[in-house]
Amino acid sequence: MIQIEGLSKQYAGTGQPALQDISFEIPRGAIYGILGRSGAGKSTLIRCLNMLERPSAGRVLFDGEDIGLFDSRALRAHRLRTGMIFQHFNLLHARNVADNIAVPLEIAGVSKNQRQARVAELLSLVGLSEKAAAFPSQLSGGQKQRVGIARALAARPDVLLCDEATSALDPETTASVLSLLEQINQQLGLTIVLITHQLEVVKTLCDHAALLENGELIESGRIADLLLSP
Ligand code: ADP
Ligand code: ADP
User: Closest Cα to residue 216, out of 2, 6, 1, 27?
Assistant: First the structure.
């Protein structure tokens, strides 16, 4: 479903490239882990999947289409199809939970009535129906990430991109967020791409993984076929 072909990224004014000639495929329906130490290139790679970062060379294909060739309108549609969640949640502090979740629906031009119905559905999916009117500052880290997940799912994407989604959370909260992601993969059939520096996260959740080191791809594929050290 997602093909990454010869992807390289050189940031202006830096020495070593952040990504060097990376190629692998992410199958539809996978929970695909991208594992590596801090600075390995994980964030750069995941941001190339929605063109928040432009590759210096190579291509990213979604269902055979080169997303690097999309005009701004096609790119906006692509970003609605690829929901993203962040380590530090990136919620809007002046908006309550329901209004945070509604952001992608506003961008997609969904009517107010339909937005309200969809937000209610999403609140129930992530177990936050009682918090619709709360503000982000009134929530725990795990609750904030659930809002982030609901917002990412609002426009019914087929891919969920997770940038260190649990790194700011304690182990118990991490487990509950990971199990929500698993439920979303199984019930909604979403493809999930998640980057992490924690091998444990990959082992508990992912069926596929890619290992990055210093911008290079060390190995990739089905977990069962990888050499990832125990
Ligand atoms: P994290 O480890 O939580 O991803 P970083 O400190 O690596 O956070 O990066 C935070 C932000 O700074 C990201 O948007 C990243 O692209 C940017 N960034 C990281 N390294 C550099 C750098 N050397 N020069 C400029 N921006 C950078
Ligand atoms: P990771 O997510 O694995 O921590 P990143 O993709 O954030 O890795 O960073 C890979 C390399 O690219 C690092 O050396 C980082 O400092 C550099 N980098 C990241 N973002 C920027 C940026 N905006 N400008 C310059 N260098 C960056």
Answer: 6
How many whole angstroms from 188 Cα to the centroid of ligand 2? Answer: 32
Name the residue of 43, 50, 166, 195 to mutate for ligand 1: max ligand atoms within 8 A of Cβ: 43
Distance spanning both ends of the chain, measured CA to CA: 29
Q: Residue 225: what pLDDT?
A: 87
pTM for the structure as a whole: 0.88
Query: Which residue from 195, 127, 129, 124 is spatially nearest to 166, judged by alpha carbons?
Result: 195
Domain residue spans of the chain? 2-229
Rounded to an integer, the average pLDDT of 47-70 is 97
pLDDT of residue 57: 97
| CB of 102 shorter than 6 A to ligand 2 | no
Whether 13 is in the pocket of ligand 2, judged by its Cβ within 6 Å, is no
Homologous superfamily assigned to 2-229: P-loop containing nucleotide triphosphate hydrolases (3.40.50.300)
